[in-house]
């Protein structure tokens, strides 16, 4: 699940955990902006920036009218 501060996943028991932090944010930033005790022990570091191909798909296929993406 994507969040502006990072990326979350769910483990085999259904517990949400922080998988990666977006550039410009820290684990503490994420913990301070969620309303529950977030598991951060599995955090793998920063999210990787999107590839050119991924951006192309977002802008040309997902949102060609520019409604959601600037």
UniProtKB/TrEMBL annotation:
Identify the InterPro entries for this entry. Answer: NagB/RpiA_transferase-like
What domain of life is recorded for the organism? Answer: Bacteria
The molecule here is called Uncharacterized protein
């Amino acid at each position: 699940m994507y969040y502006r501060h990072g990326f979350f996943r769910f483990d085999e028991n259904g517990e949400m955990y922080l998988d990666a932090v977006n550039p410009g944010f820290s684990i503490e930033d994420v913990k301070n902006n969620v309303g529950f005790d977030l598991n951060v022990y599995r955090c793998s570091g920063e999210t990787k920036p999107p590839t050119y191909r991924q951006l192309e798909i977002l802008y040309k296929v997902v949102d060609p009218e520019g409604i959601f993406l600037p």
